[in-house]
Structures are given as C-alpha cells and as structure tokens.
Amino acid sequence: MSGTTPRRRGRPPRTESAGTRDRILTAAREVFSARGYEKTSVRAIAKAAEVDPALVHHYFGSKEEVFEAAVEVAFAPALNASDAVADGPLDGVGERLTRFVLGVWENPATRTPLLAIVRSAVDNDTAAAVFRRLIAAQLMRRIAAALDLPDAELRAELAAAQLVGTAMMRYVIRLEPLASADLEQLVARLAPVVQHHLTAA
After folding, report:
1. What angle do helix axes 152-167 and 183-199 make, rounded to 10 degrees?
2. Segment holding 133, helix H or strand E
3. What is the rounded CA–CA span in Å between residue 194 and residue 174?
C-alpha cells in the first residue's frame, strides 16, 4: 500500500478552509512558475496541492481567477512601492521608488514569483490582462494618490514603464551589460529619469 496521502474530495471542514486555500495558492504559484499560464491547468494545480480540482473551482472559480489571486499574493511586496513614494520629501521620490522597485527584483525570494508572472503575461493575453488590472488598480493608483500632482496617473505610469522596462531587460531578457551592472550604478542613472516623470512641470 502506498504511503502517500490520497487527495481529499469535496469541501474541507471549515477549520481547514484557510489552510487549504493557502495550499492551493502556493501550488498555483509553483505550477504557473514552472509551466507558464498557457500550459497550466486547474487539474495540475489541484494535483500539486493534493486536493480535488473541485476545491480549486470552489475557492477561486476559473484558472484566470486562480492566476489573479496567485499574482496578487506574489506581487504584494511590490505594492508597497506607494509607501516608498509617500515616505519623504518629493524631491527624493525618484530615488526612493527606483531603489525600492529594483530591490524587490534583486531579492531572490520576491524575484522568482515576479519572473513567473511577467513571463506568463508576455506569453498569454489573459495573463497580461490580469497583470494590467493589478498594476493599474493596486499599484499605479496608489502611487498617483501619494503624488497629489496634476496628471498623477500618467506620471506614475511613465515612471513604472521606466522601471518595469529596466527590470524586463535586466532580469527576464538578461541583456548585457545591463544584467551585470552594479545596482548602485543603475539607481544613480535611473532615479533622475523617474524623478522627472513623477514631478517635472
């Protein structure tokens, strides 16, 4: 007889609900990271989480909704970028935001799920739509609100485009010499550009 625990079918007891949901999300991030959005199925996520596929549908609905939930959890550290904008004088916001965003990418613990998200968004229109919604609603609007300047949303989006583009070239495409450049050198070059996007007249 095998020593593996069989997958449970149906809804878990209420006391297990939070743990089951978290386990599904953890499994989803791992499967999306390994296979990308296109090649990931609800059945594969359920298998990795050791639950019945019906439970994945029960907690999250469609694959798109599972992806969005997994993205939001994985992207949570980056969502604190709005705090980096608000915490300090306006003339230093470019450096604070640049240092914060690149710091999230430099940290292996936060870089790995971000890479999975970005790769899925590049390859699949549905994943890209989820990524855009999250960026717009959770990150850009928060930064815009912290700026309290005319055209704040456009300013925030231009700054984000500068930083996301750099992250793509450095961490995803790994274009040299950008991929191997010293972090402080990048901050020194990028921060004035980000500052201009955010605060220039």
Report:
1. 160
2. helix 125-134
3. 21
Q: How far apart are CA 155 and CA 164, in angstroms?
A: 14
Name the DSSP class of 151.
T
pLDDT at 12: 47
Can you read off the two tokens belonging to residue 188?
Answer: 């020194």
What does the pLDDT read at residue 84?
67
| 161-190 CB burial, b ≥16 within 10 A, e <16 | ebbeebbeebbeeeeeeeeeeeeeebbeeb
**pTM exceeds 0.85 for this model:** no
Q: Please answer whether residues 138 and 146 qualify as being in contact, where contact means their C-beta atoms are separated by less than 8 angstroms.
A: no
Contact by Cβ (8 Å): 74, 114: yes
Strand intervals (E) in the chain = none
pLDDT at 8: 47
Q: Could you give the angle at the alpha carbon of 200 between the alpha carbons of 199 and 201, nearest 5°?
A: 115
Q: What is the pLDDT confidence band of residue 160, given thresholds at 50, 70 and 90?
A: confident
CA separation for the pair 125, 153 (Å, rounded): 24
Give the amino acid at 160: A
